[in-house]
Amino acid sequence: MIYLDNAATSFPKPEAVYAALDRFARHSLANPGRAGHKMALAAEHTLDDGRHRLNRFFNGRSPDRFIFTLNGTDALNIAFKGLLNDGDHVITTDLEHNSVSRPLVALADSGRIALTRVSCDSGGAIDPAAVADAITPKTRLVALTHASNVLGTVQPIAEIGRIVRDHDLVFLVDAAQTAGVVPIDIQALCIDLLAFPGHKSLLGPTGTGALYVGPRVALRPWREGGTGGDSSSPTQPAEYPYFLEGGTPNVLGVAGLIAGLDFVEERTPDAIRLHEVELCDRLRLAIAELPGFELFGHTDPARRVGAISFRCDFLSAPELGGILDQAFDIAVRPGLHCAPYIHRALGSYPDGLVRVSPGPFTTDSDIDRLIAALKEVCGT
């Protein structure tokens, strides 16, 4: 199988990730506890190590501000449902994944918040001035993706972050498509809440993710329960990160995430992104020569991560994706990509587009085999 669906989850993982998971599962997989036995203490140390690594990688204010979550969606729900109050106004965009859109739309439909959705340009970029124009006296939060999971377009979050901070609002960034391939400096970018999965470009296992909660933000706990330490308090302990981490965490997954982060730091996010974007450009040039195909998104590689979407005039996206899978053993992602608003804006709703997203282990040969398959499908 040629796997070209890394925007959904990265595969394969670095060999060190598999080794770390196996080693931890066999020797250290106890319930983390700050006052427990040696295995419990070792498990707690793994969580602490993971927080320190993430804090250094993203330049956060403190390791304790990193909350381990089930995935990016979990992190976003903790943020939205812990922050927003009745009557708040939220600004988001038409680029968003359903992990951002659905919680906000549900809150808006129930009458709890007002929601404004800022449109992007034809290449998938948000104008910071449009965000500024959408701010009202009741605005509490600006929440947007760092890069579109459909078009790969990287957003100008530095400019938007300054606007949000100047208005004393809360800035949430969904880094699902950028954490691990685009350098992110939380403090320099004025980010208050950073949500990201561990299983995409950080190359960790599924079931991992984190939410960074900056000191300007006070959240209510979305789930409450055991914390492995303070068992006497009748309510969730106020100490971070335990305040937002009720229940047994996925410490096995965090061990794998640390190994993935080792690989990313050694290779560097810039080098991984360059590799993936160059592969997309290789595909883009070939598709531009094929009759009946239409490409979407910005052509400037400096404005993109490694994802490219297109459609075919004579085959729907699901049909073409199925042919590539069944006849050529090539895995791509057809459809709406959990981002229906941008597909409506592009005119690709309801069938969607075919998305190709290479990873750090994808080769030129893999892309060339896809190009050959597309040529065969269209008879050229």
Report on the structure:
This protein is an alpha/beta fold and 380 residues long. Helix content is 38%, strand content 15%. The chain has a 7-stranded mixed β-sheet, with helices on both faces. It has a 4-stranded antiparallel β-sheet with strand order 9-10-13-12, with helices on one face. Strand 3, helix 4 and strand 4 form a beta-alpha-beta unit. Helix 2 runs parallel beside helix 7. It is globular and about 70 Å long. The model has no long low-confidence stretch (mean pLDDT 96).
Number of strands: 13
How confident overall, as mean pLDDT?
96
- β-strand percent reads 5-15%
Note the run of SSEs as H and E: EHHEHEHEHEHEEEHHEEHEEHEH
Task: Indicate the low-confidence ranges by residue numbers.
Answer: none
Name the structural class.
alpha/beta
Rg result: 21 Å
Biggest beta-sheet profile: 7 strands, mixed
Number of helices: 11
Helix percent reads 25-40%
State the strand order across the main sheet: 2-8-7-6-5-3-4
Straight-line distance between termini? 24 Å
> What would the principal axes of the Cα set say about the shape?
globular
| Quaternary status | single chain
